[in-house]
Amino acid sequence: MNTFAQSAVAAWQLLVSGDPVLLAIVGRSLAVSASACALACGLGLLLGAWLGVARFRGRGGLLTLLNTLLALPSVVVGLVIYLLLSRSGPLGFLGWLFSFKAMVLAQTVLVLPVVTALTRQTIEDAERAHGEQLRSLGARPLVRALLLVWDERYALLTVLIAAFGRAVSEVGAVMVVGGNIDGFTRVMTTAIALETSKGDLPLALALGIVLLGVVLVLNLAIAAVRGWRERVDGGGGDGSGTAAWWRPEARP
Known about the structure:
The chain has helices at 2-17, 20-53, 59-69, 74-85, 100-136, 141-151, 153-168, 172-178, 188-198, 201-233. By secondary structure, it is mainly α.
């Protein structure tokens, strides 16, 4: 109990004083996760939206594979990326191993199935409700997908927030491909694991507090977006306070 109390006081002092080592680790961690989410969301939103409206042979198998990737262990992703980026690997010429770029790549691979699967489910539900109206107006699958993405933008915003939470709390993959190098590839999760094993509990606890704070902010953001969407839906039903132009209620 004594050790915990002393560590908590020391951790609080690190937070209040703005310890440069602590701030550098937090900044690097947020930068890696934000970069990975930007890449994963850019591709995942498009792919998920297309899967939500497209119908083709083998789609069921593809969705099964996609759902399986949701539970992909992060250490397995780290191992695969490590082998790809190693000197003898096919991407070894890039020289990314044990770098910021390697960590971004690993987290992108982890987050991409999450964004794609959740987007696909959201758009497919919207397609069931409004797809017939769009098809009657002559909208092809790609156009329908883009229209439904815009119509469900507030729901998809929660997907992006959840994806960032998945990325920022990941430890296995970035540990493997980043090497946890002090001042270069050390992020919050890997630093917590290392400092705990070294017995530097104040720094580990301070980083843990920051990580919990980030997760709390993300959950509050998701709740705020949901509440905002419920309020504006009352004004028109499409999440923007006005009905979508292609819906019957929007027509004169």
